[in-house]
Specification:
45% helix, 5-stranded mixed β-sheet, Arc Repressor Mutant, subunit A, Dna Topoisomerase Vi A Subunit, Chain: A, domain 2, DUF1835, DUF1835 domain-containing protein, globular
Length: 304
């Protein structure tokens, strides 16, 4: 059977207007999941994996089951037909959120086996959705066709990201050269999302609290300062608003103007530790009494 020419997969709707303006040939598919957030439990059978994802997204971001089915599950069915294309081109930025989605899709497509799998990523700090048509054409011309060894490593890294023990992911990153550009930095940043061994806060949570401490009194101001301080996480409004809500009312006053509670001041100074609700970070499940923490002195993840 003759293969179709090309399929472009974009990470989110925000990239679509710029991509359409570039008028590149081929079919387009929008990836709308955020696999960097919530449970990504690789040990589950595929149907249960996506059922767990649907539960998380609908409960956390007010998406309906029908909306999730249309935006994600229907797209997965189309991905299973990617072998019909000669080339599948993945358009993903360098930030953590995009790279986790890219990692999943690389290992997925390595099983579906289109003719060629390529990756288009703009320079670090640049976003596909803000590029001019000429710049998008340049990124396309410089796309990186993935070799078999890169796809094999993507499978290994996804299994580790979605595995129950993040120490294994950390060990792999320390012992191997990561041959897929931007993944090393993104996955090292992922490890910093585990609670700090001293304060109990993740790095993103610390940045949110510091923003309030530095005078940001509205949610909008907090989000803006977060993006300015650490854009490499790639979080959108919904992710940051949810993260902030999880710190309220214990650490941040619930109503604007926002301010820190006395407990938050002590936590930031390392005098007390914040205890999270049980949560999933990739395939790892952590509770207040069991899990892993990030030691900022050693710059490594530790069991705790």
């Amino acid at each position: 059977m003759k293969k179709l020419p090309s399929l472009h997969i974009l990470n989110g709707d925000a990239s679509l207007p710029a991509f359409e303006a570039a008028n590149l040939p081929g079919q387009v598919l929008i990836w709308r999941e955020v696999l960097s957030e919530g449970p990504a439990i690789g040990s589950l059978p595929e149907q249960e994996f996506w059922q767990k994802r649907q539960e998380f997204i609908t409960q956390t971001y007010n998406e309906t089951p029908d909306g999730y089915s249309l935006k994600v599950l229907d797209v997965l069915e189309k991905l299973n037909m990617a072998h019909a294309f000669f080339e599948v081109i993945l358009w993903f930025d360098a930030d953590l959120m995009c790279q986790v989605n890219l990692l999943y899709l690389l290992q997925k497509l390595s099983q579906v086996k289109p003719g060629v799998i390529s990756v288009c990523t703009p320079a670090d700090g640049k976003s596909i959705g803000y590029l001019t048509a000429d710049a998008l054409h340049q990124v396309f011309e410089n796309r990186q066709m993935q070799k078999e060894y890169q796809l094999q490593q993507a499978q290994q890294l996804w299994q580790l990201y979605a595995g129950p023990d993040p120490m294994q992911l950390q060990a792999y990153l320390q012992q191997h050269d990561i041959c897929i550009p931007n993944l090393q930095k993104a996955l090292e940043l992922h490890l910093r999302r585990f609670p700090n061994c001293k304060t109990g806060l993740t790095e993103p949570e610390t940045l949110l609290l510091q923003s309030v401490k530095n005078g940001s009194s509205t949610v909008k101001q907090v989000i803006k300062q977060f993006w300015e301080k650490q854009p490499a996480f790639g979080f959108g409004d919904w992710q940051l608003e949810y993260m902030l809500q999880e710190l309220q009312p214990e650490l941040v006053q619930e109503k604007e103007p926002l301010s820190l509670t006395p407990l938050a001041e002590k936590v930031l100074q390392g005098e007390e530790a914040f205890k999270h609700k049980p949560q999933w970070i990739g395939g790892a499940y952590i509770t207040p009494n069991q899990g892993w923490c990030f030691d900022t002195n050693k710059q490594t993840l530790q069991p705790c």
